[in-house]
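Side project, low priority. Logging it here so it doesn't get lost.
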Amino acid sequence: MSRGTALRRLAAHEGRWLMSLAWWVARRRIGVAPGEQALGYAGAQAALVYGLTFACVVETVGLGVLLAGKAVVHEVMLFVDVYTVLTVLGLQAAAVTRPHVLGAEVLRLRDGARREIRIPLERIASVRYDLRFTKERDKNGEVAELAVGGQTSVTVELSEPVVAVRLLGQRETVRTVRFHADEARAAVAAVRAAMAARGGTPEAGAAPEAGGAPVRQG
């Protein structure tokens, strides 16, 4: 990929998270059509994001006091600090305003403003609650992870692969997708119901899990 293409994709990403701030303030969601179900995932990172935002604000105030007598440096650092705060908040805004979306035909899994994986329901072989805290090494490059707060909680196995495009345009063929949902078991039930409604076959023995898969910790 050329440097120009990478810069254009980064600029587009920048525009998306900036737009997300406005949608967040307006309490609106992006790309959720009537009749589609939004599956939120921003809750797992909220505490970290707000804590980091507070630290950045404190740093901004502290530097403002220290650099009060140096006008040019003070203005430059103020710009950098304010932009950093907006960037951190933009991370949360993108996650809140761009939830996963379950439609009648397609499950769209999102990673904030960074990327989106579209999975036709007909290609889903199974979906299950599967809490994981560590990223397993994927020797075949066929697993995509959309982790939030260092964890994923739902695993989708595919009968046919889909193509996932990363932030800078790298394309990868995946057969397993792991993602996080704040209400993971409810998300699993919703996907299974959508599969059944369109005539698909949910995972065998698809009774709600009592405790999920074993938690894997590093």
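Brief comment: The radius of gyration is 20 Å.
Revisit when time allows.
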